[in-house]
Amino acid sequence: MTRASLDKQPAAVAAMFDGTAERYDLLNTLMTGGQDRRWRREVVRALEARPGERILDLAAGTGTSSVPFAAAGAETVACDFSLGMLRVGVRRQAGVRGLRFVAGDALRLPFADASFDAVTISFGLRNVADTGRALRELRRVAKPGGRLLVCEVSHPPNALLALGHRTHLRFGLPLLARVSSNPDSYRYLAESTLAWPDQAALARLIQDAGWDGVRWRDLTFGVAALHRAVNPG
């Protein structure tokens, strides 16, 4: 099985997710103690998808995160560069109206300028090789006034909670990963989480990419965070 490194070469990252596609959603629930489901509900509430809108869900994987947007009446595109994840998603989400799957690279999105009313990425931004470029691509395909929502792992501001979180990532997560068909992929996920910038640093990256009105709020004491912004056009 492929194990990606922190230089995040696209082919290696895609192959790693291909290898864990079938059990990816289950393992996410296990390694977060079920919090991933609550976080995704917060994403749905924060994005406020509306009937008739076009929404891009980037790094959508199997489409679990995309289904609620389509259910709200939005034309939803689930985009990912792991063909293995997309194949699983197409099978699992068959029959969901208003949802289609598209293979695409976050650094070269296969969409025209100003194509979407809202763009979102959950737990995928830290897996791209160039965070700033991905944020600029998301802005390119968003309409003027279009909304950005990033849900990503983060760092608890409380020192004691931060210590517990790091301990879980370094020791607890590798134990859970043993039930995966690709344990090395979860070691990568732990390493990428530890290396990811904190809430304020990510907000600066979003602003530097040209987004306006950047703000964030913590989820589960800062283990994850929601960042929101608007495309000034």
UniProtKB/TrEMBL annotation:
Family annotation (PROSITE patterns): SAM_MT_UBIE (PS51608)
Pathway(s) annotated for this protein in UniProt: Quinol/quinone metabolism; menaquinone biosynthesis; menaquinol from 1,4-dihydroxy-2-naphthoate: step 2/2
Catalysed reactions listed for this entry: a 2-demethylmenaquinol + S-adenosyl-L-methionine = a menaquinol + S-adenosyl-L-homocysteine + H(+)
Superkingdom as given in the UniProt entry: Bacteria
EC number: 2.1.1.163
One annotated GO molecular function: demethylmenaquinone methyltransferase activity
Residues where S-adenosyl-L-methionine binds: T62, D80, D105, A106, S122
Gene Ontology biological process: methylation
Keywords in alphabetical order: Menaquinone biosynthesis, Methyltransferase, S-adenosyl-L-methionine, Transferase
Coiled-coil blocks: none
HAMAP family for the chain: MenG_UbiE_methyltr
Family: Belongs to the class I-like SAM-binding methyltransferase superfamily. MenG/UbiE family.
Job of this protein: Methyltransferase required for the conversion of demethylmenaquinol (DMKH2) to menaquinol (MKH2).
The name this protein goes by in its record: Demethylmenaquinone methyltransferase
Organism: Actinomadura chokoriensis
Gene name as annotated: menG
